[in-house]
Design a protein that fits this description.
mainly alpha, 14 helices
Length: about 375
């Protein structure tokens, strides 16, 4: 098996490809070339020979952080999902490289990195210099640390002497629909058959994510056994050109646990059978034979709320509401985690379940009543 950081990967045609630095281009950026072999060991041997014999090889201490970052990105391309790649690349291009990219590896240390992160926390916003969230800057820290560890593993720099200070991600407390607002929403959508209404009811009755709702196809809905098969999600990944920086694709869910089966309630089944009878698309909430983008659907969803004089809320709140209602009804944590597509029941309880003060009071009253 290839060691992480080798910059060697197996191609779709079965051959092994190894990339190496082959001097500079006319614009001053590093030029990369490749060697190919039928086995990993042979490819690694070729790569090591070329690295040691190239007359224009650059000393590792003179390598820039941007060069190491490019190699790290390439070596992780197979491991990371397309949407994660796009997210990381955006952070690298927008924040990390403009601040650290021009530095040599010999100039990178804990003080440099921690100062960069501190600046991002206080005034890192690109447009207006506003503060960035702790969780966003924490992701920058994780990426930066991974790049440095990659360079250390390759022998291109020494380990940092002191730790990188990752900002503590603030515990979010997302809003859950009150039962009053939830009832108003259900009543408003009772006789509506728009894509936005069907998608909203799907999320409210299953806890599906917006990307999963947009990707759901009629082939994934088993009306006979009353089961929805979550097999795909709409993901935003890097585009193919400068003009197309990102694009939407139909992708598999991020984790194996996200690929799951969700029972269809009787109320949801009635809504979906109506939608199926009126549909001319292979996708549940699309009007044509292609999936609807998450941003487009979110726009339709918000307009629908406004049209019914309902508070405009983030679509993800529907998932939190579903999880909270399930917990309030007495559902065990393991079953809930399976429905939400989590690998751990702790994630479901800590992140998605938000008991109201009324619920907590009722449970305390019942505790002392039964004592």
């Amino acid at each position: 098996m290839p060691r992480r950081g080798d910059n060697i990967h197996k191609r779709k045609d079965g051959r092994w490809e190894g990339r190496y630095r082959d001097g500079y281009k006319n614009d001053g950026t590093v030029k990369y070339s490749s060697v190919y072999a039928s086995t990993y060991s042979e490819c690694k041997a070729k790569l090591e020979f070329l690295k040691s014999s190239l007359p224009n090889a650059v000393k590792s201490k003179d390598m820039k952080f941007s060069e190491i970052t490019a190699l790290w990105t390439e070596s992780n391309r197979v491991r990371l999902k397309g949407s994660t790649q796009a997210k990381y690349q955006n952070i690298i291009d927008t924040h990390i490289l403009p601040s650290l990219g021009g530095l040599k590896m010999s100039e990178i240390n804990s003080v440099t990195v921690n100062s960069f992160l501190d600046n991002k926390i206080n005034s890192g916003g690109i447009r207006y210099g506003e503060k960035l969230s702790a969780s966003y800057v924490r992701t920058m820290a994780i990426i930066t640390e991974a790049i440095i560890k990659f360079a250390v593993a390759e022998g291109w720099c020494a380990p940092l002497k002191t730790p990188i200070h990752k900002p503590a991600a603030a515990q979010s407390n997302p809003t859950v629909l009150s039962k009053e607002v939830e009832l108003r929403l259900l009543n408003a959508l009772q006789n509506e058959q728009s894509s936005a209404s069907v998608g909203t009811l799907l999320a409210l009755n299953t806890g599906m994510r917006i990307g999963e709702v947009c990707a759901l196809q009629w082939d994934d809905v088993d009306f006979k056994n009353n089961v929805i098969h979550v097999r795909h999600t709409v993901a935003r990944v890097s585009g193919n050109s400068i003009k197309q920086k990102t694009k939407l694709i139909l992708d598999t869910p991020k984790t194996l646990s996200s690929q799951r089966e969700i029972p269809i309630s009787d109320a949801l089944k009635r809504v979906m059978l109506k939608a199926y009878a009126n549909s001319n698309s292979g996708f549940v909430i699309s009007k044509n034979n292609n999936f609807i983008g998450t941003r487009t659907f979110d726009y339709q969803y918000r307009n629908m709320l406004k049209a019914h004089n309902l508070p405009v809320m983030n679509f993800h709140i529907l998932r939190h509401t579903f999880a909270t209602r399930c917990a309030e009804s007495g559902m065990d944590a393991k079953t809930l985690s399976r429905l939400l597509g989590h690998a751990s029941a702790n994630i479901s309880l800590n992140v998605y379940v938000h008991p109201s003060i009324d619920t907590m009071k009722k449970q305390l009253d019942s505790l002392y009543t039964s004592a």
